[in-house]
Amino acid sequence: MRSVSIVGIGQTPVGELWDRSARQLAYQAISAAMADAGVERADALFLGNMLSGSLLDQEHLGTLVADFCGFHGIEAAKIEAACASGAAALRIGAMAVASGFHDIVIVAGLEKMTDTVGKDTTAGLATAADAEYEALHGVSFVGLNALIMQRYMYEFDVPLDAFAGFTMNAHQNGANNPHAMFQEPITLQDYLKAPVVATPINIMDSSPVCDGAAALVLVPTEWAKRFTTGHHRGAVQILASASANDTLAVHDRRDPLFLEAAYISSQKVYRQAGIGPDDLDLFELHDAFTIMAALGLEANGFARRGEGWRMAHSGEIGIGGRIPISTMGGLKSRGHPVGATGVYQAVEVVQQLTGTAGANQVRDARLGMAQNIGGSGATIVTHIFGS
Amino acid sequence: MRSVSIVGIGQTPVGELWDRSARQLAYQAISAAMADAGVERADALFLGNMLSGSLLDQEHLGTLVADFCGFHGIEAAKIEAACASGAAALRIGAMAVASGFHDIVIVAGLEKMTDTVGKDTTAGLATAADAEYEALHGVSFVGLNALIMQRYMYEFDVPLDAFAGFTMNAHQNGANNPHAMFQEPITLQDYLKAPVVATPINIMDSSPVCDGAAALVLVPTEWAKRFTTGHHRGAVQILASASANDTLAVHDRRDPLFLEAAYISSQKVYRQAGIGPDDLDLFELHDAFTIMAALGLEANGFARRGEGWRMAHSGEIGIGGRIPISTMGGLKSRGHPVGATGVYQAVEVVQQLTGTAGANQVRDARLGMAQNIGGSGATIVTHIFGS
């Protein structure tokens, strides 16, 4: 198996980008990544996207984007694993290079969730849940997370404001990220007075509906030097990669408060990389809701069961803390264009590991983990990257 | 790169299967393939599907099927490339094994196109075309193919009944396939009196809207003997695999009558396998419309430009002919559950190469090719298999 490295990154700002169509967003991110790597061709494009069929009446999106980017005669496919589509595409891009099927692979993530005429984004997002056993009964995606959060607060006797620290940390970091949707810090008061979406989840617990695209250029590690010599940014190696599934429906879980697929996939990547959670310099986790940040810290070995929320208030998750999370704003503040999020996370880890994260730079960052979650924990893809 | 072999196959009958939901169809095919291979676990599931978002309000389909099949902690993703989703998933499954990421991989194709309450299947299929530049103007998928066929007839002076032979060959073979949707031969008279769908395409030129699922078990070739010793069916090796894109919109093509992506991908697989078209014992081509059969024969080196249609009448494409096509009924008679078709094609080549194709067995078949087309030729995936 060939080792695989990332030699170029690109991203659009995240937001309600009504002036750009899906294909234009993808082109913007992909052309930026190719310019960053200094490549003018690619052998394949694997595109993470969840909602183009539901919201844009457009499937065949991989080839549409490849065509719009000017590629001809290359492999193109869309990879869908709900909100984990981006990291699922990254894994497949890595397989394509590792196997020798391809040498230069573009992995992109794309989602256009706003300005979709006559479509219902909430119903679209509910397609990540079980249509016949969850969505049909009227539960939305926020609703499912609200049930989990409610149970967590009951089970572990956690106060309602315990999650505010996750939001404040995310916005603090997003304030310094020019690509973030929200670039202003929030206070505890802002959190406490935020309108409720689905009890107990308020709007400050939730990531926003938005548009965005991000891209990576992958090559065999042995080639990486060619692309980065004399370049401001070094290559980043994919040290470990794993994906695990759980039951799709939350009600089928043995324990709805434990992200078993996160546990399984992170145990695999720790083993592959020969490290443990304490060796990581940062962790881009999937804070689609604050409860997911708490559960992610627990399942991946940073906190004991029922105690992930405590880290939000201890300073441990800040840029200078024990394990910085959401270092560029996370899903809450940078934004969560669902099928693109896993690629944004990888882009941000690359920024950190190449010393180009600006005001949010984690000092001497060498090892970073990213974890992308599909559905309410049903598909979890985890990567460890090293500089 | 590890060589990859297929050690198990499974398929449901194709048809309007109103008594089975999407997940049940997938389970039926996957459990049959696993029983055929004698495996009880898998490391990953790559699921080809096009329309679950549009027609079933269900994304996250890879994990949904993995969960319903009883898999826990494995990788699962849906692969979408319009009607080429099945073969696109097969390529990714092959990469997963070739790279060493996984050892036992399930590749499945699934489509549920009928009994979809309140949904428009024609509009769903049009998502394979360019939503903003083709579908928005009202052209359906059949419409696009009708324009291509009309032009072909004009350009090469081809009579309207010239395509009947493709349909008659497909139905002749489908009559002996217990999994085929249509199991009766048709006559030239049947073809001539068939109602027109979009001039000049009639209902006998067109593959049907239907449901179905098919599955394959992939392992490293060096492991294949373990699974097939004492078994009725031998392993089949994936000798070559390639995918190529063209412009998504037909109006952007340099020449709408030449399947350039078929040419590129078949040239690649011929080179990889070290063979030419004359060495093949059979060719499962993508006869979604009869015009696509003619164009496929031309682009892949079996006929000269403008002469593919002549093969339909010469007996060359029959079971005992020069290059048997649609040997189990093809898309026309077996049926075309779009995202599943590429996997059905692979299943059928395995049947032929292992001598288990029943009444349609091609004698001494050793080398078979399958080609799966997404959109009107925008994504074309080609495989060569060997026994």
How do the helices and strands line up, and which of them pair or pack?
The structure is a homodimer of 387-residue chains.
Chain A: E1 4-11, H1 22-37, E2 44-48, H2 52-56, H3 61-68, E3 75-80, H4 85-99, E4 105-111, H5 121-125, H6 141-155, H7 164-174, H8 188-192, E5 196-198, E6 201-202, E7 212-220, H9 224-228, E8 236-245, H10 260-273, E9 282-284, H11 290-299, H12 308-314, H13 330-333, H14 341-353, E10 367-374, E11 379-386
Helix pairs in contact in A: 4-14, 7-12, 11-12
Could you tell me the mean pLDDT of chain A? 96
- The CATH H-level homologous superfamily of the largest domain in chain A: Thiolase/Chalcone synthase
Instruction: Count structural domains of chain A.
Output: 2
**Element pattern of chain A in H and E:** EHEHHEHEHHHHEEEHEHEHHHHEE
CATH architecture of the largest domain in chain A: 3-Layer(aba) Sandwich
The percentage of residues in β strands of chain A lies in 15-25%
Gross morphology of chain A is: globular
Give the % helix of chain A. Answer: 25-40%
Spatial ordering of strands, largest sheet of chain A:
3-2-4-7-1-8-11-10-9
**Strand-pairing-aware structural class of chain A:** alpha/beta
Q: Which two chains have the most extensive interface, and how many residues on each?
A: A-B, 69 and 67 residues
> Could you tell me how far the N terminus lies from the C terminus of chain A, measured between alpha carbons in angstroms?
19 Å
Number of helices of chain A: 14
Biggest sheet details of chain A: 9 strands, mixed
CATH topology of the largest domain in chain A: Peroxisomal Thiolase, Chain A, domain 1
Number of strands of chain A: 11
Uncertain runs of chain A:
none
**CATH class call of the largest domain in chain A:** Alpha Beta
Q: What oligomeric state is this?
A: homodimer
